[in-house]
Every structure is written in C-alpha cells, then in structure tokens.
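ok, trying the design again with the full structure, not the truncated one.
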C-alpha cells in the first residue's frame, strides 16, 4: 500500500525545508502542550499524595485521642467540636460503632447524622481489614455516613479517611471517618494550571510567530538552492560549449594560416586584408573560449596545477621579450629592473605563471596610451614580489573594488577601444591563489596603476 504518490514524494524531496518547517510548526506546540499536561498531572498527583498522607495522620491522631474514651460520648463530642473548629480544612468527622453488620453514628459534626445506621461499603472494608481506607469524594454532605446513600455532588473535592479505633488492649471498638477539604490546595493548583496554560498559550504564539517569520528564510534557502542549480547548469553549458567550439575554431585558424601564407595560392590586396581581420577575430574568439574553459575548470575544482620550483626571473624576461614588440608598436617603452643578485626559484605552475604574467603585463600595455610600463622583481622575506607599474589611464576607487569580478570591465571613453571579456583578471587572481600567492592593485585615475604579485619562494618550503 502506497502512502504517498510519486508527485508527493517528489515534492517532499524537492521542498525539504518547507516540509521541515511544517513538521516543526506542528511538533513544537504539541511537545509543549504534552510537557505542560504531564507536569500539571504529576503536580496534582504529588499534591493528592501529600493531602492523603495528611488525612491519614489526622485520623490516626484522633483515634489515639479517643481510644480509651469511646464510651464517654460527650467527651468524644467535645474532642470533635474542638478539632473541627480549630481547622477549616476538617469538614466532617464521625465516630461509628458496629451495629450488627452495619455501623451506627454515635458522634458527628453534623447533629442530624447522630444515630444514623449505614451499611457503607468502605466502613465494612476498613473494619474487616483492620486498616485505614482513603478515597476522594465531591459529596456536599458534612457527615460521611451519607456517602453511600446520597448523590448530591458539589464542586468541592474532599479526601475521606476511615480508620478503626482500637483500645489499649488492641481490640477494635469503633471507626473514625474524617472528611478533609482540599479546597485551598485545589484553588492553588487551579491558579498554577491557569498560569501554566497562559504561559503555554504565549509560548505557542511565540513559536508560531517565529516559524512564520522564519518561513522567509526557508524561501531564501530555496531560492539559493535554485540559483545554485541554475549556476551549475550555466557552468556545465559553458564547459560543454567551450569544448565543442574549440575544435572548429582550431580548424578555422589552421585554414586561415594556410591562406595568409599563400599555401593555396597567392592572396593579395583587399582579400588578404580581410583574411587578416578574420584571423584576428578568430584569435580573440579562441582566447574567449580558453577563458571560459579556465573559469569552468576553476569553479568546478578541475584545473590541474603542477606546482614545482621554477625560475621567476627567466619567466619575466621571456614575457617582456614576447610583449615588447606590441609595446613598441603602440609607442610605449617596457623596462625590467632585474635584481642584481641571483634570484631564488619560486613554487608555481610554469604554464600558469606565464599566463598570469602575460595577462598582467599585457593589460598594462593595453591600458597605457602613452608613457611606459616598468617591471620590478625583489625578494620580500619568504615571498617573491613582482610589480608592474604603468603610466596608463588608471581607475577610480569604485572600479578598483570590482576589478577582480567575473565579466567586469571598466567602461569609459578611454577603454571603449580596448577588447576583452572581463574574465582575465578574475582568472589571474584565482591562478595566483591556487599557487599560494597574493595580488594587490593600487591605482590613481589618469595617473597610472601599480599591480603587486607575491609568490612563495621554493627555499621557504624546505
């Protein structure tokens, strides 16, 4: 037999937070109610036990008092009157003697009960068993002799204790039946119950309000989960699309290279010019695909890093030589202030290090309209410090705060002509982080930018 349909099971799995909130909304108030009921019932039991013990004690004391005076009715009656007048809790007190199989009242708080013959079962049990017997009643009669015959019931509760009275020789001579009111204790119990119910209601209201308020948090959690799913789908799509685009782009670049180098025959004039434009565009597209692949690998933790000691000085030299022609074409000078002493190796992935240096020095050249780009390399304790300083367009503090965000590009008149995806610096920062390094940027708008990269020295890890 299936308790839930497939759609219901799917809903419960998909919206676990909502289900959890509803269960809490039901279970917490129920638990509070059950706990309060349990405490009240236990308190009532403890109070009843204490009141019963008190009734037993009072009856025992009275029995001891009259055991040798049971034939002196006036004396016994005076005892009864003095005891009942001294305590408001003693509501009724009867002394009975056997009358055949029944019992006759010889002394009572209620004068109308004296002489009454009763066959009340509890009297018989107490007499036959030689033990006290106690029970609760709501009978409004003063004398206990009418318990078995009258059905008049009031709102007040009483404890009745019936005990045999023995003389000094140990022989049973009478029964004492005492009726003790539990009104004071019941009133206090009722007050405590009312207070407990009030606290219970307030607690439940607070819990319900709290859960209703926190429903918004569950909505946010569900929204966050949805966003994560969408983000994962986006990453998977980018990874798949990038891989699928890589092959045709490589083919296009190969054929363009063959065309521009006249391997299919002479190409001149406007045709060559257009082919070179296509070649540039395909290169930019290939770089975009590579950036997207790197982003996907980094976010999914699939980017392989081969960390090993490497010559940072040689890596900086090679990148500057590679980019120097581009800088000269733009009318810029690129200088490298090499350290005077042999420079220690660093721990890095050589290919990723080259990617970082090309990106940072290339950016400095791209965003410097006139002036120079200067690179320095120094050792700072256990770190190697590379600085790229340019006299470019700089940036504002607001732009600097968002510089390493994905797809973020500074948009102004000077940057409109500079191509890019806004992924390069994000990838650069992540690569530096994966190589246990750090990157900092200082910039003044229309003055220039200084980028500082710190990478760990190989010798510091020994």
């Amino acid at each position: 037999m299936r308790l839930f349909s497939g759609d219901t099971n799917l809903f419960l799995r998909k919206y676990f937070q909502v289900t959890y909130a509803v269960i809490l909304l039901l279970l917490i108030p129920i638990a509070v109610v059950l706990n309060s009921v349990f405490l009240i019932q236990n308190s009532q039991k403890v109070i009843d036990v204490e009141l019963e013990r008190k009734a037993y004690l009072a009856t025992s004391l009275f029995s001891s008092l009259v055991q040798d005076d049971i034939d002196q009715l006036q004396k016994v009656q005076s005892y009864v009157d003095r005891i009942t007048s001294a305590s408001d809790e003693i509501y009724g007190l009867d002394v009975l003697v056997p009358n055949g199989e029944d019992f006759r009242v010889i002394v009572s708080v209620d004068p109308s009960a004296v002489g009454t013959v009763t066959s009340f079962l509890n009297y018989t049990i107490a007499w036959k068993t030689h033990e006290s017997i106690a029970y609760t009643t709501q009978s409004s009669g003063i004398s206990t002799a009418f318990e078995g015959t009258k059905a008049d019931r009031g709102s007040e509760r009483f404890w009745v204790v019936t005990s045999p009275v023995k003389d000094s020789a140990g022989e049973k001579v009478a029964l004492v039946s005492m009726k003790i009111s539990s009104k004071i204790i019941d009133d206090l119990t009722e007050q405590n119950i009312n207070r407990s119910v009030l606290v219970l209601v307030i607690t439940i209201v607070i819990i319900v309000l709290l859960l209703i308020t926190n429903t918004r948090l569950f909505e946010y959690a569900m929204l966050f989960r949805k966003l994560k799913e969408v983000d994962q789908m986006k990453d998977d799509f980018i990874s798949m699309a990038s891989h699928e685009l890589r092959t045709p782009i490589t083919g296009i670049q190969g054929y363009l290279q063959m065309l521009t180098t006249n391997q299919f025959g002479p190409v001149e004039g406007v045709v060559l010019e257009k082919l070179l434009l296509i070649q540039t565009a395909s290169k930019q597209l290939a770089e975009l695909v590579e950036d997207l692949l790197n982003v996907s690998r980094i976010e999914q933790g699939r980017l392989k890093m081969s960390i090993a000691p490497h010559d940072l000085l040689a890596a900086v030299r090679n990148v500057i030589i590679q980019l120097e022609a581009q800088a000269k074409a733009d009318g810029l000078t690129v200088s490298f202030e090499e350290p005077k002493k042999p420079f220690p190796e660093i721990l890095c992935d050589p290919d990723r290090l080259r990617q970082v240096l090309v990106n940072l020095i290339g950016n400095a050249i791209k965003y410097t309209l006139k002036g120079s780009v200067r690179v320095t390399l120094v050792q700072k304790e256990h770190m190697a410090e590379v600085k790229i300083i340019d006299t470019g367009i700089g940036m504002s503090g607001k732009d600097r705060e968002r510089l390493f965000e994905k797809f973020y590009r500074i948009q102004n008149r000077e940057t409109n002509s500079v191509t890019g995806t806004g992924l390069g610096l994000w990838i650069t920062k992540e690569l530096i982080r994966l190589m246990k390094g750090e990157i900092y940027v200082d910039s003044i708008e229309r003055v220039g930018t200084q980028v500082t990269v710190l990478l760990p020295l190989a010798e510091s890890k020994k």
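Keeping the full-length input from now on. The longest strand covers residues 153-166.
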